[in-house]
Queue: 3 jobs
Job 1
Amino acid sequence: MTSPPTPTPTRIATGEIVMSGEQHRAMLKDYSSHGGTELTGAEIALKYDMPVEHFMAYKRVHGFTHNTVPLTNEQLLGDSEKHIDELLAARKHNAAQAKYTSVSVRLLRKMPSSGVT
C-alpha cells in the first residue's frame, strides 16, 4: 500500500502555502470559467479559508486565470480522452451561452425606451 503524496509547499512573499494536490485541483476548477464555477479571488479565499492576498499570490505562482483549463498535467496524461470530451462539452456550453447573451443584449438595445427614468 502506498502512502498519499506529500503536499508541496508554494513559496509566496509572506511564507509558504501547503496544499494537497486534491485541494489545488478543486481550487483551480472553482476559479476557471471552463466548466468550473468561476469564483472571484475573494470568493476563493473565503471558500478555502485563506487571506485574499495569499490566494492572489498563489494564483500568480501557479498561473491561474479564469481562462485556465481546470486540469493538471497529471489528469491529462492519465485519462485524456475523458477530460477532452468534458472540456469540449464545457466549451460548447460556454460558446452557446455567450452567443445567447450577445443576441439578448442586441435585442434589448433595439427595444424602444419606455420614457421612464
Job 2
Amino acid sequence: MITRKEYLENEDVTHEQYYSQFVDYEVVKTVVDYFGDRILNSVVPHFNDIPLTQWDVVAEMIKPRIVGLLAKANEGGISKSDLVCTAKMAAEMHKIAYKATKRVMGAENENT
C-alpha cells in the first residue's frame, strides 16, 4: 500500500497511483450507478462539469467501502477530498475501461 506520506514525498508516485489503490469493482459500480452517462459524456478534465456537491454525495456512498484502507494509508485520518478523489478515480477508470471494451461497468443494462 502506498501511504499518503509516500505519495506526498515521492514525485514518482502519481495521483492516479495513490487513489486507484482504493478503487475496486464495487466503488466503480456505485459511482457509475449514481452518475450514469454523465461520466462517459464528460469532456472536462477531472469531471469538473459535474457539480462538486454531487461528488460529495457519491463520496459518502463509497465511504463505508474505503474508509479502512484510506485511514490505513493516511495513518488514521481521512478527508472529504480523499473520498472525492477516489470517486473521481473510479469514474476515470470506468471511462478508460469503457473506451477499451464499450461496456458500461455496473449498469443494469449490459447491452450499453
Job 3
Amino acid sequence: MITSFFNYYQEDSSRILAECTHIYCDEEVFVCGYKTHSDYILKNIKKRLDKSNTWFVYYAAGKVTKLFEIFEPQKFICFHRLDRDGLRLYDMEKFYGKLKKEAKATCTT
C-alpha cells in the first residue's frame, strides 16, 4: 500500500510526507495526513490553526475505516480522490457511517 503512494506521487512523496503530521502504516492500511481547520480548506489558505476541526488526508489505501480507530475524531474529513478533481469535505461521522455501510454491502458470507 505504501508502494502505491510512492508510485503515484514519485518525487513529491518526500515533500508530502514532511507536511503530514500523522502517518500510519501496517499490513492493512497506509494513511498520511494532518489536522487543520475547514475554513482554511474552503478558503484555500495554507496556515494551520491551533484549533483544528478537520483531518486533511493526503493519501489512504487499504482498510481506510481503520483510520477512524487510530486517529482522534475531528468534525470533518477532507481529501481528494485520485480519479477526480477537487477536494471533498465531509462530516466525519456521516462519512464513517457511509464507509461501514459500503463495507458491509461488499462482504460475502
